[in-house]
């Protein structure tokens, strides 16, 4: 697992797989261990089962699709656009502005 600092001292980007986007862990210094523990839990089989129980796809390749899924995650990923997550995390205001103009117009 790698962690990257951001402009906000209370947010850290945590990545366990270089091919997957990072997850932002927010919290003041005393809360970071708890935030990382929650993050770590959600990547376990038990955590991913909780995701599946909520009818969402798991990020783990060893987990089944959610009940009644009409498309497999591997098929969904074929339509994903390449993203530079580190660059995006360094420019949050620019990303929000573009989202507003593109999606919320």
Query: Unreliable runs, pLDDT <50, ≥5 residues?
Result: none
For the biggest sheet, the summary is: 3 strands, antiparallel
Structural class: alpha+beta
Number of strands: 3
Summarize the helix and strand pattern as letters.
Answer: EEEHHHHH
- State the helix count: 5
The portion of residues assigned to helices is 40-55%
Overview of this structure, please?
There is one protein chain. This protein is an alpha+beta fold. The chain has one domain (2-104). Helix content is 42%, strand content 12%. It has a three-stranded antiparallel beta sheet, with helices on one face. The longest helix is centred in the last third of the chain and has 13 residues, at 92-104. It is globular, with a radius of gyration of 16 Å. The relative contact order is 0.11. The model has no long low-confidence stretch (mean pLDDT 77).
């Amino acid at each position: 697992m790698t962690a990257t600092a951001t402009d906000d001292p209370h947010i850290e980007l945590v990545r366990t797989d270089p091919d997957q986007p990072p997850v932002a862990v927010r919290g003041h210094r005393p809360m970071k261990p708890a935030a990382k523990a929650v993050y770590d839990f959600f990547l376990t089989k038990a955590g991913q089962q909780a995701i599946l129980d909520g009818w969402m796809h798991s990020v783990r390749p060893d987990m089944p699709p959610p009940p009644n899924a009409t498309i497999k995650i591997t098929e969904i990923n074929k339509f994903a656009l390449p993203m530079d997550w580190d660059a995006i995390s360094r420019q949050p205001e620019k990303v929000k502005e573009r989202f507003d103009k593109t999606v919320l117009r």
